[in-house]
Amino acid sequence: MMLSYRDVTIAYHDATPSLVDFSLEIKSGEIVALVGESGSGKTTAIRAAMGLLPGGGEISKGDILFDGSSLLQLSAGQWQALRGRQMSMIFQDSGAMLNPIRTIGSQFVEYIRAHEAVPKQEAWEMGRVMLERMGLPHSQTIMKSYPFQLSGGMRQRVGIAMAMVFQPRLLLADEPTSALDVTTQSQIVQQMMDLRKDYGTSILLVTHNLGVAAYMADYILVMCNGLTVDRGDRETILRHSKSPYTRELLAAVPAMGVKGDE
């Protein structure tokens, strides 16, 4: 398995655990969704896999493995080599992660050169090409733009492009569409699906929207108050779930089709 959580429990400041006995395995090329309301523990789960738990967050039990090796034992240098190249993360609002007083291009160049010793012009071109891959045809103009000059959807595409510039094997996506309008949401979801098709990328998706999970994911975990209350493949969750909480989430989605195998 590419990524494995083994009975992971996480708490902040010795409080009630935010994640309890969490287990999950993700295979190469698989899309898995963690679905639940705010406070369910889903964001804590993916931040732990990136070594990005906020201050006070501690894994008190269990282990997280990437390619069979524990992520909990990595040094700072090993994390630097892993993040960006092998696994990367998309945040809920990528615009908030961008420096408002620097151009998109300068931020791309800095990010790329932090991971690979390439000339500035080559790093610039790598960023520009990835922007085009994310459906932003005026890539040269965007590279010279500041974040405030871009729409929310464009900033989110920039965030995904930056996360994917090294074509990592695993993409962790934390509510990547929740701050966007419905049309842009649909476009971002489709572009993320294309990443798997084009690069074989595995995706661990966090969302409160079971409709998005149903469209994208091969396997779905439903979470509530730090616990996994339901799990199964898409068909099982949508058609045969016996969990009252899952049925509540399903009822909150006005209309949703189940995509067939592609």
Automatic annotation (TrEMBL):
Key words, A-Z: ATP-binding, Cell membrane, Membrane, Nucleotide-binding, Transport
Main location: membrane
Residue ranges occupied by any ABC transporter domain in the UniProt entry: 3-250
Listed GO CC annotations: plasma membrane
SUPFAM superfamilies reported in the protein's UniProt record: P-loop containing nucleoside triphosphate hydrolases
An example molecular function term from Gene Ontology annotations: ATP hydrolysis activity
Subcellular location: Cell membrane
Domain of life: Bacteria
InterPro entries (alphabetical): AAA+_ATPase, ABC_Ni/Peptide_Import, ABC_transporter-like_ATP-bd, ABC_transporter-like_CS, P-loop_NTPase
Similarity comment text for this entry: Belongs to the ABC transporter superfamily.
Name of the protein this chain belongs to: Peptide/nickel transport system ATP-binding protein
